[in-house]
Fold this protein.
Amino acid sequence: MKTIEKNIAAQSPIECEAPNLQVQEEKGLKLVKYLIVGMFFGLIFVKAEVVSWFRIQEMFRLQSFFMYGVIGSAILVGLISIQLIKKFNVKAMNGETIKIGKKEFRKGQIIGGFIFGLGWALTGACPGPLFAQIGSGFTVILVTLVSAIAGTWVYGKFSDKLPN
Amino acid sequence: MEQFIEWISQPWPWYIAGPLIGLTVPILLLIGNKSFGISSSLRHACAACIPAGIPFFTYNWRKEMWNIVFVIGILIGGFIATTFFANPDVIVVAASTQADLAALGITDYSSLLPAEIFTWDNLFTAKGLLFFVVGGFLVGFGTRYAGGCTSGHAIMGISSLQWPSLVATIFFMLGGFVMTHFLLGPLMALVGF
């Protein structure tokens, strides 16, 4: 029994904010659709200038409604879509029932959230825009990305010693 | 065609961009039962390249390849937007923000990121250390500790009515306010702005 539990834990990352609840595993060309959605997403990020350090400054200085409008309307559309998916029991393309992982409350959401906020105001980017900034030609952001990966690694290394 | 390019090259308003970003949530759920989230790609990068036997990075990251492919797509999307549909004008920023930033030594609005900070020339300076190394580290460490970023918590989490994500989002904003209003000025003075 213990081995089975261990195997399950090893297969899907615990406390992951993007739990992959698809049963079938996808490889190779099946992943192209995510590349296309990502491209669409990166294009919007840059065209709406949400990847701009200036937009993030406007937001945190409460001097523009723009970012609040973007995030607020994105949440609204997400909320309505999820309600519709649930109400009509819409299935995923491969026929699986759509599952959304439950997020458990932990102290990390407070402490880690605050730490991320500090970094967000400095870099002017959350992880998504970091990739879009690099694509937009700000190649020095590669250094920020490597540092963000290092930060993730350090968290992983000490995660069991941090309050959670 | 020219008119189309001219039209699409204008900066998009929030009420177009926001709903399109929100649509990513049902699209990912429908095409592959995937919950929207971006910072987890950093974790998968660690798991794939430098797991070092740490339990947090020991899982089947191959199953999560979609997330890595997704962020590569974001990078390519950024490239396409800038190469083919770039806005030729300077970025329009609120006058009050411009006044605040001028006091910090930021006055260049020719591109999306201020040229005073985000250049390779600054890499091995105190400015680079603060904005690239420290900033990036805080983003990576903080998002993982929080279990998500703006996409995973603020958009996906709140959309699916999960209160822990609302808590996380409140603290993202709080951290940003504290950095912007209390720490950014002194820190920038310290690194030579």
